[in-house]
Predict the 3D structure of the following.
Amino acid sequence: MKKIIVAIDGYSSCGKSTIAKALAQTAGYKYVDTGAMYRCVALYVLRNAPFRLDEGFDEEWLRAHIDDVRISFALQPYGTQHTLLNGQDVECDIRTLEVGNAASQISTIGFVRRAMVAQQQAMGADKGLVMDGRDIGTVVFPRAELKLFLTASPEIRAQRRFEELKEKGQNPDFNDVFADVKDRDYRDTHRAESPLKQADDAVVIDNSHLTREEQMEEVLRIFHSKQALLDQSAEYSPREES
């Protein structure tokens, strides 16, 4: 079957990464965690910049060094995927709160996003790739063969996030979580650089009332239908006459 690019976009707490990883594993495709890439940039800054982020940010220093940030992904023997920064496994290092907070600040910078998009596009050169984020189908791969847009009501997404935080041993207030979800939606859809929006040709999946299993079944149905259609089109496409 012809390998394709699957671009998955959507709102926060819609399970984009979970679906993307599961689809990639089922299809035998590569999975690219775009959030991890911005965390790598943040880690590079924290390790190498001659300034402290809490004391002010020097964008010109980062602009001069952004091409030194090279990111790749390595599949582990037990099936998970680790993130590499300049060839070094940093999977654990990029998951700290400090790096996450720095990534939130750095990911809004235009030249950083453009540099990451260039690396992401290079990763998809050979197809057979699943990537999730907020601008994958609109900016990174506007010609992706399959685009999915995941959504759910803000209340449902806040409840999911609320339960997730409780499972981690935290004691969140639901109203605070709900407010944060709405604030994040606003920031994602109104940011100047690559705002979140649904691509015109994306297949929308509202998973407000779907279990993970039901959602996965729907995604696989759409994926296999798209592959079959593309294979059929290739088989019956008119050939040039000699």
User: Anything to note?
Assistant: The two ends are 27 Å apart (CA to CA). Residues 212-236 form the longest helix (25 residues).
